[in-house]
Amino acid sequence: MSKFALGQSITRIEDAALVQGAGRYTDDFELAGAAHAYVLRSPHAQANILSIDAAAAREAPGVLAILTAEDAAADGLGDIPCLVPVTNIDGTPRADTPRPVLAMKRVRHVGDPVALVVAETLAQARDASELIAIEYDPLPAVADTRGALRPGAPRAWDHIAGNLCFDIGAGTDKTVVDAAIARAAHVTRLELINNRIIANPIEPRAALADFDPASGRSTLYTPSQGPHVIHGQVAEAVLKIGKEQLRVISGKVGGAFGMKIFLHPEQPLVVWASRRLKRAVRWTADRSEGFVSDVQGRDNYSIAELALDADARFLALRVTTCANMGAYLSNYAPYIPQLAVPMLSGVYRIPAIYANIRGVVTNTVPVDAYRGAGRPEAIYLVERVVDLAARELGLAPDELRRRNFIKPADMPYQTPVESRYDSGDFAAVMARAMEKADWAGFAARRDEARRRGKLRGIGLAMYIERCGGGTGDTVILKVDPAGSVTLISGMQDNGQGHITTFVQLLSDKLGLDSSQIRVVQGDTDVVPSGLTGGSRFLAIGGIAAISAADEVIAQGRDAAAGLLEAAPADIEYGDGEYRIAGTDRAVSLFEVAKVTKGLEAEHTRTPEAFTYPNGCHICELEVDADTGEVHIERYSIVDDFGRAINPLLLEGQVHGGTVQGIGQALLELGLYDAESGQLLTGSFMDYALPRADDVPSFDCGFHHVPCASNPLGVKGAGEAGAVGAPPAVINAVVDALHALTGTKHIDMPATREKLWRALRAS
Fold first, then answer.
1. What 3 state SS string does 48-83 have?
2. pLDDT tens digit string along 2-55?
């Protein structure tokens, strides 16, 4: 191993074990005598439960328990909470949607848990579930986002009139925006859909619970994005046993994309079952189960109205969004569409912006954060309406953007929707991306494609997102006199390379070999509170780590001075040693730790301000005029992440997010039957994830402008690709089709069938 510096591209330290199958995921934890749980789920989108007869199932071979809502009520179990209050425009609070761990009297979406079967083997649990006789009274269901608000639509909840669970307004005074639109020389209006996405991480959700009869304490093993988020809800909100009676452990996490932040019913269910049976109980979702039970993402219908003056300068933006929350309000669900509002200015001067966001409940799987959480929805809307405005005005897409960019001299820039940008050079980022994409040579490539019978299009999208916020995160740094350093963090790696980055930061700061540094995550008995999400790892956790290292170095200075028989003011630190300045007399960090019987620092980093990564995506693609098939020919990206700590990991995050954005733009759709509420895309036969031949090689570049709000100058990168890709791809698709068909907009996903129909209609 070696010492690492900041800015050095190094491969991930954790990968060797993972690719050799040595990673320990939740399903890899072996507990002696663990029973298996199977969740019996509703086949109906909405129905009253008239009766449940589990007598035959309880007598089936290997069955240990059949648990229903009646048992949960008898044991005093609470509901899964929504953690976000909302105040409506009229001052009233949002509607509530109590979510039991097992459906009580009514099921509200296909996949809603109705009973938990625990048996010696999974096969026995499955077989027994088929013996449970449930009498349902099916009710009309509502699954369509817009349709939920139509007069006469079935109600997902009896007490929520018109299925409207919240209705908020944000931004500039609406009368000011209305007046600006009324006097504008030109108004571009666009209706658009941000399609529902199913997260589908490689590792499915899982839960394994153990119980210690001697202490009365339970341990829950489950993948998470920070075990403390799960810990408090299971222990206090649902089981009501107190935090001290529960330990939560997250091992390796095989992808999450936001979905594993949130509490799902199965986690408290297995802990409850384990405590009842006084033995270990395990559950792991199969892929089909995940489709109807994992929290899903996006699903917005929006109207954007962009007002411009006679010189094509932006005057105002009015946005109306209907956001589908699903059947229950998930932990942070009402917050996600609100996260779109601070990004509605994009990278542009828009003096007045007003947004009305209406949350609706439907008989579908609950919706919460998915990679980007509100920012992709905002930027997709802004970049599509700006592109359409350029087309309507006969301006080049880059020219309209250039006229309206916020300039570096304007920084810090206060938008009318809360965000205050501290840095950025948007025109330079776009210019560099256009150069990488050979924008000037596109016309010749389009002509050549036409001769081959292909429709070639190019799409440009600027993005900016708000990251690095939220509550503070704490790390603990310990220096062991035996020769190692341990960093303990409440954040949870789920594929981003946290271990590598923490080691790189500490190797640089402490001057130690990477093999001497160990990182601990994922155990509520050991780690402080923390959360991975919102591209906040470096701007919060990383700065906490180097700050703790500074504190450790400062702690050892007096002891080092004593060992070297010098004044503390004469001691400097570097390369793992304290030395007398200007001499070769030195003592190592670990020698000092021996004298002090260890060095330890705990540091909490509370963000001072948000960070604002930004960039430009340019997609060039061809559409087959006969089949509607899309092939991406070139894809160029220039990002401003403030600073690159590890350019290799940074580019990997951009690649992954961009692939997910392309997937949403061209392939992915969680589609429900509007009347029955049945999920029509409940397997990979119907839900298309991007494959290797669906995506190109990416030409990535950086134009960093350091962030002013944190000492590392970093802005965050984990979600950027998923923010910039959808509008770039759809802008390119529309550009390809427009000359032949007059198409001004096409909703995501731009599938082969959808494009084929648009071409035939022309």
1. EEEEEECHHHHCCCCEEEEECHHHHHHCCCCCECCC
2. 778 899 999 999 999 998 999 999 999 999 999 999 999 999 999 999 999 999
CA angle 143, 146, 149 (to 5 degrees): 90
User: Counting runs of H as helices and runs of E as strands, what totals does the chain give?
Assistant: 19, 28
Q: Which helix (H) or strand (E) holds 330?
A: none
Helix-strand-coil split of the chain, %, nearest 5: 35, 25, 40
Residues 6+ apart with CB under 8 A from 738: 391, 457, 744
Which residues pair with residue 484 across a beta bridge? 480
Fold match, 31-139+208-282 / 469-605 = no
Q: What is d(CA 458, CA 659) in angstroms, rounded to the nearest whole number? A: 18
Q: What are residue 572's phi and psi, to 5 degrees?
A: -120, 160
526-575 per-position pLDDT tens digit? 999 989 998 999 999 999 999 999 999 999 999 999 999 999 999 999 99
Domain 469-605 bears CATH identifier 3.30.365.10: yes
Domain ranges of the chain: 31-139+208-282, 300-467+610-761, 469-605
If DSSP codes are grouped into helix, strand and coil, which group holds residue 477? strand
H or E element, residue 556:
helix 543-564
Dist. CA 659–CA 84, nearest whole Å: 30
Which token pair is 280?
Answer: 């270990």
Cα–Cα distance measured from residue 258 to residue 470, given in angstroms and rounded to the nearest whole number? 15
Instruction: Look at the domain 31-139+208-282 and name its fold.
Output: Aldehyde Oxidoreductase; domain 3 (3.90.1170)
Output the six-digit token pair for 485: 């350093």
Helix (H) or strand (E) holding 302: strand 300-308
CA distances from 474 to 470, 487, 496, 606, 622 (A): 13, 11, 19, 9, 49
- SS3 state of residue 436: helix
Q: What is the CATH number of domain 300-467+610-761?
A: 3.30.365.10
